[in-house]
Amino acid sequence: MLNQYTQQTKCLVALDSIIFGFDGESLKILLVKRGIEPDKDVWSLMGGWLQANENLDEAANRVLKELTGLDDIYLENLSVYGDPKRDPVERTVSVTYFALINVADYEQKISDSFQASWFSLHELPELLFDHGTMISHAIHRLRNKAAFHPVGFELLPDKFTLPQLQTLYEAIFDTKFDKRNFSRKINASGLISKLDEKQKGFSKKGAFYYTLNREKYKSADDTHFYFIPNLSTIV
């Protein structure tokens, strides 16, 4: 029995994270430059290696914390990539996760050697190995998730305006929504609570701030919120 274990091909397990950020205008991906050969200085997803004493979720959270300084953020398992030729250095299986953060919350704790930068989804550079495929799959998953569950709020600050919320969802789905229809649906969902405070400096009247209804948000895992207009045409 033990011989069957020792005779098997060994392979490395990598954890790669597709980190989505929203800067108030567009949806972005956080990338770093690869620091080793081959393909040194090619842009890459943030990643690291599975350690012997970790499960996959623990490893993904550790790697993200080490590279960004961020923890306690939305992180979801995406897929596994195991093409035997995907990494020319060593047989490597990659387990991917996608993370959602607000860019304003991002703290510059990455070492300068990583040369991390945010890139718009429409202006991605040449990417390492199969990382472009990983990002495409992550975008598809995010859109499907955001259409039925309010995970998009993870990309927003604690207080936001309805125009900011609509801009976020238009960035996620790469489409435009009717303002009145979107506002009506999101208000009817009960997910947001209106504050007395207004955003200043953008218009004479100013837009009211809203905040996420945390209790409603917690219960949303077991409920489908169809607050995205024209859902069938964009998912």
Main attributes?
elongated, about 240 residues, about 25% strand, 7-stranded mixed β-sheet, alpha+beta, 2 domains, 3-stranded antiparallel β-sheet
Molecular structure report:
This protein is of the alpha+beta class. It folds into 2 domains: 2-148, Nucleoside Triphosphate Pyrophosphohydrolase, CATH 3.90.79.10; 158-233, Arc Repressor Mutant, subunit A, CATH 1.10.10.10. It contains 6 helices and 10 strands; from the N terminus they run αββββαβββαβααββα. The protein has helices spanning 2-6, 56-68, 131-148, 162-173, 179-188, 214-219; strands spanning 12-22, 27-33, 43-44, 46-49, 74-81, 92-102, 117-120, 159-161, 192-198, 208-212. Strands 1, 2, 3, 4, 5, 6 and 7 form a 7-stranded mixed beta sheet that branches. Strands 8-10-9 form a 3-stranded antiparallel beta sheet. The protein is elongated, with a radius of gyration of 20 Å. It starts with a helix and ends in a 16-residue tail after the last helix. The relative contact order is 0.15.
